[in-house]
């Protein structure tokens, strides 16, 4: 066995900003290079220089295409990285769509602050020129490792990476799906890893039963239809939007929900949905069968609003309506205008379906504040607020414990990353007490000595 160092440069002590470096035997491998999101200092953190020399990194492996896992890749390239980037095929196709959106937002923010953007289209183009893709269970031989991607079941193309030296294995899970997913196959089991870097977003919380989530959503939609109300759903453009389009399509096809206008008010989500359609072979079997007879992302009374004028016109539409709009944490995007229109409307409903980072508008609203500031104006919050955690695309505490315990016999150390300290700490104690796992909660900048 050889000695390696594992550095936690992001995704430690926080959910977002994943960035891990494995170094030893003359090789440097990064896993993920994401944006830190959610706090008032996240912009400053993202612009800082990397704590390693990007030009010395040989490879970057990308677990999936969410911004908190890919958002700083163009900066990595701008700062000198010229190695190879690897991901699954869907992740490679999703990445430029996500980068295009991020680049546009960064350029706008930079103009407002009279500073240069963190990166631009040239950096994105160069990053994509370095990018290669491969399939689940295909083996890459990059000495001294054989590397294999396994299905994480989190979003389209999400992967766990196993680095096998022949003497030992380390697995980076990325984010782990809340199996069974609406669209995707279940997360694969990992049973022979010596070391693992595992997410812990919901390490101290359990979701509602998955068997109830569809009935709960249907009930909310039926209530909106009966009362001619307005439902606002702040959604993540990648995965969550496609899940809800599929769910609503199913209700409409069965005649269980009708009379409701549904607006997908997100140009990014519309583009991503096209990628989902391209990779329908990655869906689970029953969904693939559905696609043979139906467009699962389209139904009567669904309207795709791309222009700003079309978005503004939604307010004037009479009758029951559902608005799916980004961003998922309500800190930007078109959902902000909809919140301004309806926060003080007691007949409107705000539905949370995903993680809300501390410091975001979404987290404040989810925590029940009675007054919130948006764009320098305070709003009294009168609209009803509901959280459906069953639609989370992350495993809950029980799911994470179950996943980790399957590999307990081989694990020398399990590093719990990508979670708030309280969540990671709670899960670590459960894994130690119930399964004898050496569970470690690294802080930002933590360095682990491992043998592979």
From TrEMBL:
UniProt entry tagged with the keyword DNA damage: no
Domain of life of the organism encoding this protein: Bacteria
InterPro entries the record matches: Beta_Casp (IPR022712), MBL (IPR050698), Metallo-B-lactamas (IPR001279), RibonucZ/Hydroxyglut_hydro (IPR036866), RMMBL (IPR011108)
One GO molecular-function entry: RNA endonuclease activity
PANTHER family in the cross-refs: CLEAVAGE AND POLYADENYLATION SPECIFICITY FACTOR FAMILY MEMBER (PTHR11203), INTEGRATOR COMPLEX SUBUNIT 11 (PTHR11203:SF37)
The Metallo-beta-lactamase domain, residue ranges: 16-207
UniProt domain Beta-Casp: residue ranges: 241-365
Record protein name field: MBL fold hydrolase
Gene3D superfamilies listed in its UniProt record: 3.40.50.10890, Ribonuclease Z/Hydroxyacylglutathione hydrolase-like (3.60.15.10)
Keywords: Hydrolase
């Amino acid at each position: 066995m050889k000695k390696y160092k594992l550095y936690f440069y992001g995704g430690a002590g926080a959910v977002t900003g994943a960035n891990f470096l494995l170094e030893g035997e003359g090789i440097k491998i990064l896993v993920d290079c994401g944006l830190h999101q959610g706090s008032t200092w996240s912009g400053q953190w993202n612009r800082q220089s990397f704590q390693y020399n990007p030009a010395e990194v040989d490879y970057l492996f990308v677990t999936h295409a969410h911004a908190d896992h890919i958002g700083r890749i163009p900066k990595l390239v701008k700062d000198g990285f010229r190695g190879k980037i690897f991901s699954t095929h869907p992740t490679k196709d999703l990445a430029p769509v996500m980068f295009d959106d991020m680049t546009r937002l960064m350029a706008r923010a930079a103009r407002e602050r009279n500073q240069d953007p963190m990166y631009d289209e040239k950096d994105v183009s160069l990053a994509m020129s370095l990018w290669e893709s491969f399939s689940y269970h295909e083996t890459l031989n990059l000495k001294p490792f054989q590397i294999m991607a396994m299905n994480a079941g989190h979003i389209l193309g999400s992967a766990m990476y196993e680095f096998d030296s022949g003497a030992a294995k380390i697995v980076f899970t990325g984010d782990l799906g809340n199996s069974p997913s609406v669209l995707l196959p279940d997360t694969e089991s990992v049973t022979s890893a010596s070391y693992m870097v595992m997410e812990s977003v919901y390490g101290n919380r359990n979701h509602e039963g998955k068997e109830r989530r569809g009935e709960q959503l249907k009930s909310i939609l039926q209530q909106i239809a009966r009362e001619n109300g307005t439902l606002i759903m702040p959604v993540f453009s990648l995965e969550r939007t496609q899940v809800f389009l599929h769910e609503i399509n199913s209700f409409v096809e069965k005649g269980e929900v009708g009379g409701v206008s549904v607006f997908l008010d997100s140009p990014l989500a519309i583009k991503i949905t096209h990628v989902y359609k391209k990779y329908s072979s990655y869906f689970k079997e029953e969904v693939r069968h559905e696609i043979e007879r139906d467009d699962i992302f389209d139904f009567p009374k669904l309207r795709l609003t791309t222009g700003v004028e079309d978005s503004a016109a939604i307010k004037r539409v009479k009758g029951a309506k559902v608005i799916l709009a980004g961003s998922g944490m309500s800190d930007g995007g078109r959902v902000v205008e909809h919140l301004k229109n309806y926060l003080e409307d007691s007949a409107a409903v705000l539905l949370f379906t995903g993680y809300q980072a501390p410091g975001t508008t979404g987290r404040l609203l989810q925590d029940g504040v009675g007054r919130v500031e948006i764009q320098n104006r305070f709003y009294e919050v009168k609209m009803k607020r509901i959280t459906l955690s069953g639609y989370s695309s992350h495993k809950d505490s029980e799911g994470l414990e179950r996943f980790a315990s399957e590999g307990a016999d081989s694990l020398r150390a399990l590093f719990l990353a990508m979670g708030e300290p309280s969540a990671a700490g709670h899960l670590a104690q459960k894994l130690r007490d119930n399964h004898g796992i050496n569970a470690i909660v690294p802080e930002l900048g933590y360095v682990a000595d491992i043998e592979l």
